[in-house]
Design brief:
Helices cover 17% and strands 42% of the residues. The protein has 407 residues and is α+β, with helices and mostly antiparallel strands. A hairpin with a 2-residue loop joins β10 and β11. The N terminus is likely disordered.
Length: 407
């Protein structure tokens, strides 16, 4: 006789054993698969950290996770270059560290933030030549954050730029190195004297010239001209205005070049007359009028009516003849080139205002001259036609009769 309860218990035990075996087999399969997967997913990655290389074996595919796994931390300004890396395959992950290095020259320490890997790259990055300099590091030495690089062979120069003048200890060999060291940028037509390729010398003065070109429109005056009409019925020295002259106006467009803020040159581009000038018409007398007597009979050893032998030269109102160009004579009379002939002479031996007849033509003494005009009979005739006309007038002998002594 079969005990049913025993049969039921046996069936339950069998099912329990089967389930346990299946579960065990599954666990073994999962473990085996996982184990083999781990072995086949690992690969090597080279990490170049600012010139120092490390090789890590990893299963990670993200560069940041790989760096974390290698306990490598990036700074806020560090650069990560993964151009040579391929996830799951390997390659190189490059880190460019932003380091602060200090360059000491002439007891002055200047800090620079650089991504350079070597000392040579530091100087290249900040734009300073190492030629003719002594450095206490090998150029191939790796860069370390906070390192101090001592430089000898320093020259002191004066740099004038942007309205300031400063003394700079230059560790480079050319003017361009000094400009770079000072952090100065040259734009457009800016230039430097001496030129950028000039070798620097101790005590040299370097000047930066900022060049600005602008197009400007300016309102300008057109000065009126004067037309002279002679009138033989009017006495010499008298004149009258027939038509009053008026200045005109024009708008002129220029290309203006400024150097260090000052106008250096200008080129006219176009011009438009907005108001035509009016030519002045002036009538001048050419008649030799009578001389008003003043009652003076003698002065400076000379007498009224006296005739002496003289010698004449000619002069004009230019600076070469007079030593000045304002045209104001010793008597205060104003002369200028192009004026009607006023019949003036300069001499030192007669009072100002005296009238003399020179070979039959009356002249008034209004000016003084050099010591040569102090000799009796020596006169210098004013020539309103200008310097060349005075030269053509030349020198000569003359007969001088005193018509009046003084004003």
């Amino acid at each position: 006789m079969i005990n049913e309860s025993s049969v039921v218990s046996f069936k339950r035990i069998s099912r329990l054993v089967s389930a346990t075996v299946i579960a065990f087999v599954l666990i073994v399969c999962i473990f085996t698969a996982t184990a083999f997967a781990g072995v086949t997913g690992e690969y090597d990655v080279v990490i170049n950290d600012n010139g120092k290389e490390y090789t890590v074996t990893t299963e990670e595919t993200q560069p940041i996770e790989i760096l974390n796994e290698a306990n490598i931390t990036l700074g806020a300004n560090d650069k990560l270059n993964i151009a040579g890396f391929e996830a799951g395959e390997g390659g190189v992950i490059t880190i460019d560290r932003l380091n602060t290095v200090y360059i000491k020259y002439d007891e002055i320490i200047t800090d620079y933030n650089v991504y350079a890997d070597t000392v040579a790259e530091v100087f290249a990055e900040i734009g300073i030549s190492t030629e003719n300099c002594k450095i206490d590091y090998s150029l191939s030495a790796p860069v370390e954050n906070g390192m101090i690089i001592n430089v000898a062979g320093v020259k002191t120069v004066i740099l004038n730029a942007d309205s300031t003048s400063s003394s700079i200890s230059a560790i480079g060999s050319t003017v361009a190195d000094v400009i770079s060291l000072a952090g100065i940028s040259l734009d457009g037509d800016d230039y430097v004297e001496p030129s950028l390729d000039t070798a620097i010398e101790d005590g040299m003065e370097i000047t930066v010239f900022r060049v600005t070109v602008k197009t400007e429109t300016r309102n300008e005056v057109i000065k009126y001209s004067t037309e002279i009409k002679q009138n033989s019925d009017m006495d010499t020295g008298t004149s009258e205005i027939e038509i009053a002259g008026q200045n005109g106006e024009k708008q002129v467009e220029y290309r203006v070049t400024y150097i260090n803020g000052r106008e250096a040159s200008m080129e006219e581009l176009s011009s438009t007359v907005t108001k035509e000038p009016v030519t002045e018409v002036k009538i001048v007398g050419t008649k030799q009028g009578s001389v008003e007597p003043n009652g003076v009979q003698s002065a400076k050893g000379y007498s009224l009516g006296q005739t002496i032998k003289g010698k004449y030269t000619h002069y004009c109102s230019c600076a070469k003849c007079c030593g000045k160009s304002n045209g104001v004579t010793a008597s205060g009379k104003k002369v200028y080139t192009g004026m009607p002939n006023p019949y003036y002479v300069a001499c030192n031996w007669l009072p100002l205002g005296s009238v003399i007849s020179v070979n039959g033509t009356n002249y008034t003494v209004v000016d003084r001259g050099g010591s040569g005009l102090s000799s009796g009979g020596r006169i210098d005739i004013y020539t309103p036609e200008g310097h060349q006309a005075a030269i053509r007038g030349g020198t000569g002998s003359c007969s001088i009769t005193i018509i009046r002594l003084g004003w």
